Amino acid sequence: MELRINRRALVGIGLAAAVAASSLIVLRTDSGTASSHREAPMIAGDPRNDNTDVYAFVSPDKAGTVTLLANWIPFQEPQGGPNFYTFDTRSRYNIKIDNNGDAKPDVTYQWMFRDEDKRGTDTFLYNNGPVTSLNDPNLLYRQRYTLKRITPHGSRTLISNGIVAPSNVGPASMPDYGTLRAQSIGNLPGGGKAFAGQSDEAFFLDLRVFDLLYGGNLSEVGQDTTRGYNVNTLSVQVPASDLAVKGDARRNPVIGVWSTTDKHNGDKYVQVSRLGNPLVNEVVAPAGLKDAFNALPPEKDADVAALVKRVTDPEVARLLEGIYGIKAPATPRNDLVEIFLTGIAKANGPIKADLNSQSLNKDAAKLRPSEMLRLNMSIPPAKDPNRLGVLAGDLQGFPNGRRLGDDVVDIALQAVAGAAQSGKLVAGLTDKVDRNDKPFLQSFPYIPLPSNVALNQR
Question: What Pfam families does the record tag this protein with (predicted)?
Fold first, then answer.
């Protein structure tokens, strides 16, 4: 599909994309949080089912494939034994794709887990000696998983007995953790790959935003609050044709992506967590609607007027005006409706560029406004990725999908200052955390290995 981009609109696209997300800055002051970590009252008490971040990007080292990656279980202290960090065996973990724009999942990758625990009443240890392989008898506890691909036409089991990469206990227990990670990567029919296991917390930012927006004078910046923490990651790398309408990624290159957790409750599964774009539920939805948003399917978003209003008239813009005197952009914010609910296309709103709306697909359905992370799979990876993504003219970055290195907080800071409409960046407006403390890997699953250094040593 030919991509028609108005280059003059790029700054507006990138900046506007982050305005609603940038309500991170002052909306919540009750506890330290990162991107949709503990974003709602109920899920805050259920970390094993808490989605934290979703990433979707064209694989930089494998042409024709897309990598979908989602994290759960926030703020894992590496030395958190003897019971480390496990997926919930009574839950279903999902990465969902809407490829035709009707806000319903057309493809779902679903993981379910089971325990393999040999400890019994003999020991409290996770392992009783060095672990050199996933099948090492010294590894006394492991999890296995089943991965299914589900469509409206049925489901197919892709992996039936996968092994989760274990929590990184430390160098004495796991002298070569990279080998364990490599052994845990499963092969999918058709040439894809899958991964389940612990990883570094790759979302980088300074969370002192909650101290009156970096101290009220931008004096409190430069500290990566999430440095050293770990998360649990689920990821697949699949051909773009596996995700596109009718399997044709040239005619239908745009997809929408979100993750959910379904927890077994009595005799049925209930959705308890949902995440698409970073920070939306955490800082856009008011406190009284956060739990409801976690249970809501995207197809219902447009029916909740109170949530839509938080996009068209974001609270954070008014709060920033009160703290820094930066005049809030005029409402209604139809540009944000385009970014978060319809995708970017000339026909959808004020941003005059065709980028990542499913309405650009030749075989699209009638577009249903809904919140999800949208990716145009026809845009190749940048040779030199820019952390500011579309904001800097790098069309492969956020908000066109999200890569691990996209600096969504700095994009958000500029947007909330009004640069989306002025086209001018505000000098010095940054949290001064520009990258993750660990480099990203060059091959799937790209997210760094988990840390095993105690946070109180940093």
Answer: DUF4331 (PF14224)
